[in-house]
Each structure stands twice: as C-alpha cells, then as structure tokens.
Amino acid sequence: MNALEIAGVAIYSPKEEEIIQVIKSNWSTNDEEKFCACVHAVGHLVRRFRIDVKLLQIEVMEKSKSFGDSRPVAGAIDDMNDDIETFT
Predict the structure, then answer these.
(1) pLDDT, tens only, 60-80
(2) By C-alpha distance, which of 75, 71, 41 is closest to 57?
(3) CA–CA dist 69, 55 (Å, integer)
(4) What is the pTM of this model?
(5) pLDDT per position as a tens digit, 13-30
(6) Per-residue b/e over 22-59, b at no fewer than 16 CB within 10 Å?
(7) Alpha-carbon span 30 to 67, nearest angstrom
(8) Widest CA span of the chain, in angstroms?
C-alpha cells in the first residue's frame, strides 16, 4: 500500500477498524512518506470518529524515533497532535 492509498482509506473508509488496521500494517516502514500518511490517518480517525487514539499516539511517537529529526515526520506529528487536541 502506498501513501496515497493509506490517505484514501483514512479519508473515505466508513469503518474505523479498517483505518486502524491499515495504519498498523503500514507504519513499521522505513518509507517516510508512508509513515507520515499513517500519522495523518491517526488524525483523521479523531476528526471523523471522535475516538480515543492515545495508544496509537504513543506508538506513533515511539516509531517516529527511527526517522530522527525528519521535518516531514515532525510536521505530520504536529498535525496529528493538533487534531487530537481539537477533536477529543
């Protein structure tokens, strides 16, 4: 699955479980673009379903360490955190 497909599921899937499965099956990657798409998908879960994503947020922070000081990853995390703060 590529980053655009991950984003498509996050935006259009009617099932939060499907989005969570896509996130978890794609975020253990060295592909920065795919990882960022997964991080944004966590934000979309909060926006669309108003669910508690604290455990996903913790996992994102752990997995993000492998990308060092990546600006795209940091930006995706900032967006995710803003969504969590705004919609929970």
Answers:
(1) 999 999 999 999 999 999 999
(2) 41
(3) 22
(4) 0.94
(5) 999 999 999 999 998 889
(6) bbeebbeeeebebbbbbbbbbbbbbebeeeebeebbeb
(7) 8
(8) 34
